[in-house]
Amino acid sequence: MNLTHPFRDDDGDKLHEECGVFGAINATDASTLTALGLHALQHRGQEAAGITSFDGEEFFSLRGLGHVAENFSSSEAIAELPGHMAAGHVRYSTTGGAGLRNVQPLFADLAAGGFAVAHNGNISNAASLRAELVGRGAIFQSTSDTEVIIHLVATSRYPTIIDQLVDALRLVEGAYSLIVMTPQGMIACRDPLGIRPLVMGRIGDATVFASESVAFDVVGAEFVRQVEPGELVRVGFNGEIESIHPFGKHKSRPCIFEHVYFSRPDSIFDGRSVYAARKAIGEELAKEAPVDVDLVVPVPDSGVPAAIGYAQQSGVPFELGIIRSHYVGRTFIQPSDSARHSGVRRKHNANRGLVEGKRIVLIDDSIVRGTTSMKIVEMMRDAGASEVHFRVASPPTAHSCYYGVDTPERSKLLAARMDVEPMREFIKADSLAFVSIDGLYRAVGSETRDSSCPQFCDACFTGDYPTSLTDLNRQEDDAAQLSFPVHKVA
To answer: pLDDT tens, 211-252?
Structure first.
């Protein structure tokens, strides 16, 4: 969601979606529905939350740093957001991107009236578009790439807001799921490849949109369908729903990491239960990388479904050999190994009475930098485990994401620097294995990966990016041009 992509997490060692969106129109309690929906999407962004509403005449916004409950749990807060239409957003911050100016939905008064937008994803040519817009006199108020979309809409010469939005989106590349509010109603849309998720539901006379179906369960809405890749769904205040596909037909490439980690396990993604997919990944992992052990132990909480699948397929008992504390504050990236170590220990503790003297296999969803994996292996050895094996429910994460996921620079990714055996030595496990890319595809419902046109966006594993990366290529060109000697003064 920002022009920069530094890595930020509890331990500095997990990939994270940068945001989640929710919207409701024709609802008597639109802001309440939106706050509840955002609460269900809290895992997609825990740094800030915002809601914008419309009462038929005016737009109202309330934004704050922190969790949804910290900002929208009081009746006073909801009272500040009247109207039958509302949209909300939860986000992670990035370096240079924290602060209220980047908290969404973003709002602007355009010639056609108020325009509010909540965006999940990342525009991979945002810096280039921004430079062009600034050169033409545009004044930006945030560092968010979402504001680029607003400026493109504002400067479009088309007569209607829907045509202006289409005109703007034709100029952007990358990934986006958008919920847009105008005085005429709500527009929800996905990029032509459907990289980022967006689903549609109903509750009474209201139409609702969300990043994940679990938000509908929480608010009591009925799941209708996903918003199709490249589709714009326009909902008016009279309840009329119009669907248009202005970008033609493309083979979809939804993000496969939604199955691996991002989505809540009780969500449905791309027509498949996320929980079932994660169990199936564990089953594939057990077939591909069996090991003679006494216990299957998940790294909580994200490794649990895959560990259940691994245990059921292998016949090895599943046990909670690591207990996670859910009452630990976020520690962010720490400047020293000792501080990082203490952060891991505060969140996870070995179940010593269970693992002592046992051969165990740890199941986790991914390895990013490897620091947390190393500390967890060490913790299990300290608790007396006789052997500690490691199995990963995704292929090696060897490439950065440019589509709305916080990732480190590629040089910081362990799999970009090492093959599997050096990685095993780094985390100090007795053995290490990852599910294959074809095993991952089988688990999510495909017989095999179509290398000529993959069914999912799997660029973080394969480096096969489904769109152009204009800003990245531009940075590389600029770096090459600036590669001259630096003369130092003694």
So the answer is: 999 999 999 999 999 999 999 999 999 999 999 999 988 889
Neighbours of 422 (CB within 10 A): 11
A 10 A CB-CB count for 381 gives: 17
The Cα 470–Cα 49 span in angstroms is 29
Q: What six digits make up the tokens of 37?
A: 């929906």
**Residues 276 and 321 sit within 8 Å (Cβ to Cβ):** no
For residue 201, give the 3-state DSSP assignment.
strand
Each residue of 286-332: pLDDT tens digit? 999 999 999 999 999 889 999 999 999 999 999 999 998 776 554 43
Instruction: Report how far residue 372's alpha carbon sits from residue 358's, in angstroms, rounded to the nearest whole number.
Output: 21
Which residues touch 35 (CB under 8 Å, ≥6 apart)? Answer: 51, 68, 72, 73, 78, 88
2-41 in b/e form (b: 16+ CB < 10 A) is bbebbbbbbbbbbbbbbbbbbbbbbbebbbbbbbbbbbbb
Contacts with 417 (C-beta within 8 Å, 6 or more apart), sequence order: 411
d(C-alpha 324, C-alpha 152), whole Å: 46
> Which residues are tagged catalytic?
19
Closest CA to 221 of 75, 85, 72, 23: 23
pTM, 2 dp: 0.90
Separation between Cα atoms, residue 446 and residue 443, nearest integer Å? 7
C-alpha–C-alpha distance, residues 423 and 391, integer Å? 12
45/43 Cα distance (integer angstroms): 6
65: number of Cβ within 10 Å? 15
> Looking at residues 36-48, what average pLDDT do you find?
95
